[in-house]
C-alpha cells in the first residue's frame, strides 16, 4: 500500500531547497523492502537453452524490471550474463563496473584490452578484470562464458568506475583442477560433504575474495551429499558447471526445530544453467545422483565483507559456504 508522506510542500525560488524534502512517520518507512516499494529479490532460474544456440551475443539474466533497476541487473548490485561467441567472432564486454568476472563454460579464445597483455582462455578458466576499457573477447571455437560484473551497483550510486583496484588475474582450469584434486585427496575430505575452493587475490588480503566486490567459489558436491543449510546477506548468482539429474538446492527463510529448512523451495540444477539465491535465505545443496557435481556461485561478498555486513551463519556449525 502506498502512503503519502506527512510533509510534502511544492516550492519555488530559493525555497527549492525544500522542494524534494519529505518526512514519513517511522512506521511507514522503517522497512521499505516490500512488494510495491523496494521489491525483494526473487527466486529465479535460467535455462541453459539460453546459450546453447544462436548468434554471438550477450544474454543478460535480467531482473531489472522486477527490481526497479534502470539497466540489466540480476540483483540490485550485480549483473550476470551468458556470452555466446561464434568461432572467429568477437564481443566487447562493455560495462561501467569496478569488477568483471568471466568463467569459460566451454570453447576457447582470447581477450584483448588496452594496457593489458593478451590472455588466451579455454574451458574451465576464470579471470577477473578491474575498471578500464571494455575487453574484446574473440572465440576460436564456439564459446560460452558466464560474465558477472557490479555495474548495477555503480548505476545506483551514479558513478563512473575510474580506478583499477586490483590487477587483472587469471585462474587457469589446470590450476583450479589441480587444487581441487588435492582437496579431494586430503584424508579429511572423506568426511566432508562440501569441498570448495575460494578464489582470492593478493591485492585484497583482508577480504580473501576474488575482487574487492565479488566473491567466487569453485565447489563440488559429492554424490549422495546432503549439505546442512547456511545463509548470508550477500546475494548468490549460481552457475551450475555440470551435474546429473538429482542435484538440487533447497531454499527458504526459516529453519525448523531440527535445523532443516522449513517449507523449502526446490531448485533443480541443470548443467550450464543458473539461479539466484536471495540474501538472507537459508540454502542447502543436495546431490542424490551417482556423480559428483560442480558449481560456481558468484556473490557480492567482497562488498559485504568490507561493510562487515556479510553475517554468514551455518546450521549445525561451519561446514562450508556457497
Ligand atoms: Fe551460500
TrEMBL record:
It comes from Cyanobium usitatum str. Tous. SUPFAM superfamilies: RmlC-like cupins (SSF51182). It comes from the Bacteria. This is Cupin. InterPro entries: GDO-like (IPR047183), RmlC-like_jellyroll (IPR014710), RmlC_Cupin_sf (IPR011051). GO terms for molecular function: dioxygenase activity.
Amino acid at each position: 500500500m502506498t502512503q503519502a508522506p506527512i510533509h510534502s510542500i511544492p516550492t519555488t525560488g530559493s525555497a527549492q531547497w525544500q522542494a524534494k524534502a519529505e518526512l514519513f512517520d517511522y512506521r511507514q518507512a522503517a522497512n521499505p523492502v516490500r512488494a510495491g516499494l523496494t521489491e525483494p529479490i526473487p527466486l529465479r532460474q535460467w535455462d541453459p537453452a539460453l546459450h546453447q544456440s544462436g548468434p554471438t551475443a550477450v544474454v543478460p539474466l535480467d531482473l531489472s524490471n522486477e527490481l526497479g533497476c534502470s539497466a540489466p541487473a540480476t540483483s540490485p548490485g550485480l549483473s550476470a550474463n551468458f556470452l555466446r561467441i561464434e568461432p572467429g567472432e568477437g564481443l566487447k564486454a562493455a560495462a561501467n563496473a569496478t569488477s568483471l568476472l568471466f568463467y569459460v563454460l566451454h570453447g576457447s579464445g582470447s581477450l584483448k584490452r588496452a594496457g593489458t597483455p593478451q590472455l588466451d582462455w579455454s574451458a574451465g578458466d576464470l579471470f577477473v578484470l578491474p575498471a578500464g576499457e571494455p575487453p574484446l573477447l574473440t572465440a576460436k571455437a564456439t564459446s560460452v562464458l558466464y560474465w558477472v560484473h557490479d555495474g548495477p551497483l555503480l548505476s545506483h550510486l551514479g558513478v563512473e568506475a575510474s580506478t583499477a583496484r586490483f590487477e587483472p588475474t587469471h585462474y587457469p582450469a589446470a590450476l583450479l583442477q589441480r587444487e581441487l584434486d588435492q582437496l579431494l585427496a586430503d584424508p579429511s575430505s572423506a568426511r566432508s560433504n562440501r569441498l570448495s575452493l575460494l578464489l582470492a587475490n593478493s591485492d585484497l588480503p583482508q577480504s580473501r575474495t576474488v575482487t574487492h566486490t565479488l566473491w567466487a567459489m569453485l565447489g563440488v558436491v559429492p554424490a549422495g551429499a546432503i549439505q546442512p543449510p547456511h545463509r548470508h546477506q550477500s546475494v548468490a548468482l549460481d552457475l551450475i558447471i555440470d551435474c546429473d539429474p538429482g542435484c538440487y538446492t533447497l531454499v527458504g527463510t526459516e529453519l525448523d526445530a531440527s535445523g532443516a529448512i522449513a517449507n523449502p523451495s526446490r531448485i533443480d540444477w541443470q548443467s550450464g544453467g543458473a539461479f539466484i539465491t536471495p540474501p538472507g535465505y537459508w540454502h542447502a545443496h543436495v546431490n542424490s545422483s551417482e556423480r559428483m557435481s560442480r558449481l560456481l556461485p558468484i556473490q557480492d561478498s567482497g562488498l559485504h565483507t568490507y561493510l562487515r555486513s556479510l553475517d554468514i551463519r551455518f546450521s549445525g556449525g561451519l561446514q562450508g559456504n556457497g
